[in-house]
Amino acid sequence: MVWIGTPPMLHSEITCYALRAGKHVFCQARMAMSLQEAQLMWEASMSNPELVAALCPPPYGMKGDATMRRLLAEGAIGKPYHAVLHSMNGGWLDPAAPAHWRQRVEISGLQVLSFGIYVEVIQRWLGDIVAVQANGSVVIPDRQGYEVEIPDYLHVLCGFRNGAQGSLIFSGVASHPPQDAIQIYGSEGTLTYNFVTDEIRLGRVGGALEAVPIPDTEAKEWTVECDFINAVLNPSAPRPKPDFLEASNTCAWSRPPPRAWMPGIW
After folding, report:
1. Which residues lie below 8 Å from residue 191, measured CB to CB, with a gap of 6+?
2. Cα separation, 139 vs 150, whole angstroms
3. Which pairing describes strands 25-27 and 53-55: parallel, antiparallel, or unpaired?
4. Letter string b/e over residues 152-170, b meaning 16 or more CB atoms within 10 A of that residue's CB
5. What is this structure's pTM?
6. Over the stretch 37-79, which tens digit does the pLDDT of each residue have?
């Protein structure tokens, strides 16, 4: 098997070569430089279905994922109306710092902050995103002579297939930010998830938000490497997720528009 830990600029080429050579492939996120490269990876995996091809899943929300999906499926907050997610940090606040590799399009591709990784999480909980409008800003465009194109700040308004609306805020230039979290508001209450502490809180209309324990039977720990190796060794073992199809679909939503398109609908 081939384990890919390079920057995204090499993911597609190495993956396609390895699959065509008959090797199982585990690729670190981010999946690829662009949607087109991700589709090449997916096509290579479909041409070799006997091989295990997996992308590293997001750690955020992993522990309480099954509990969140169960609560929403049971109607704990009724019909979801609106979700608010924020993921902010001050990693790019220093204007004198050189461009981070995640800010360099030729290395990281068309990616923005933690947008893609959280899209993967919230689509598991709320279903497919079917409409997106975004406003982004390159707050510090010059990094020691390098012209930054990837936004330092991004505000996304999105619509889910189930009718819910989302407001997603991402920033790399936020001093003293709150912890990454999501609040999901519904017709009968509110459900929240803290991605740092894995704390779930639930409140019914007229009542207070209260902590919801994650049952041991539902808690998912980090066994990503083990899951992949087990699938390679045992063809009857569950295939690890996300596979290349799911990941390439996420790539379709996580690419930013050219700067000239901002603000706008992608």
Report:
1. 68, 71, 72, 76, 77, 183, 184, 200, 201, 202
2. 10
3. parallel
4. bbbbbebebeeebebebbb
5. 0.88
6. 999 999 999 999 999 999 999 999 999 999 999 999 999 999 9
